[in-house]
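Checklist before submission:
- one chain only
- standard amino acids only
- sequence pasted in full

Submission:
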Amino acid sequence: MSINVNWSDLEIAFERNSPDQESFLDLDNGDLLAIVEGEPDAAARRAKVADHPARFLRVDPASSREQYRWMERFVGSVADPALRERLLIAIDGKGAFRRFKDVLLAFPAERERWFAYRSELLHFHMQTWLEHLKIEIANPPPWGRVNQPAEPAEVPRAIPSGEAPGEILRRQAREMLDAIPAAELPTALAFLEFLRDRGPSSLLNPKRDESSDRPAPADPKDDDEDTGVHVGAHPAS
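Returned file contents:
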């Protein structure tokens, strides 16, 4: 029996890779059932899935590692050397996905190119999953059939200058200051003074619970499992 799939919800389920959430495709009606740990109805939803194992199929989202490789390949294709260096620094270490998105906010053309590339990869991943499990679909996806995406052409990097990542950022900051209109410099300087006075400890040390003097739980938004935003929506953060 073929089913009518809710493509928007299925797309979200495939891109959301979080240890606190599972999604299941309802083979009776094509809807998605999400189970989020800590939600009031999580136990009832899990019991529903357990009671009907043949009806609910667990969605296998694109792994964080695989989505990180997508990001790496995209960065290698960025033609602007300064932006490519900023992105290479941004994707190094924990929090890479969020820093990567933050950098692209100021570059709308490259941001749109990233969304298009990522959407194509995600849709191909979904298509492959459905075909592998021989799930018959009554309503084709709005984006049509997807061929295996070609890897973006990598732009050769210039010979390294020997600058440390921190020095590269300082140089780029100076270049940005030089480009700011004089009327805006007081605001920019006030913000830089705020960052200086706050000190590096508040940026680099773990958040602390003042009542117990122990590290506070990490904000889930900073976790690398937060691999992205809904590719169809293109939100700003």
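Reviewer check: The longest strand covers residues 21-26.
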